[in-house]
């Protein structure tokens, strides 16, 4: 799917990140979060669904002259971290300005830290804490085994969060290519720690000022096993509504970015879910 939420498990990010984790990516139910810990999915994805599919599937044809074989390229794709920082700088920076230093968390399917670019690096979480405006900005990219998409029911996740009053709003939309786009608004404490929690309005009202933040996350999960989350955390100085800095359409644009959806990450399946 820190973010809701299989992208963050598959979405760590809101059910306690993912995915959104990160987006997750983070995971949708307590047992799932315990199993995958922080990361799969992160998440949730970048440019209209159809455009994203075209961008991934279409290449630039090579001109063939005099029967010569088409030229091939051995150029390596840029590192995932480089792509994510570039996309975040353009998407968040347009509204926030100076983002500050990037903070990175790169993990395996079980949440164990690994080096960026490692073969088992499955969930990448990029965070910024701007000097003013949002409490935190997260962008996460994760991979998951495509068969796991059916296991982690996002619609059920939204229903659960709403019934437990752990989300102010939660919606899931199926895109034309079969990808799932989830948008969640909730209250969370422990931002920037290893133990963020989703809270009800009543729980937040009983906390000292500054202990909780609003979070709005857009998470994309694709049929081919990619999860991208984009999230903004804002001060919970008002419990009626958050003062957002990044427009919702901008978060959607980040989650749907085709360069993030094409990132090279691991796709190891999540372990069996247990109640331990």
From TrEMBL:
Keywords: Membrane, Transmembrane, Transmembrane helix
InterPro entries with a match to the protein in the record: TAT_signal
Domain of life: Bacteria
Residues annotated as transmembrane: 39-60
Protein name, as recorded: Uncharacterized protein
Organism: Nocardioides caricicola
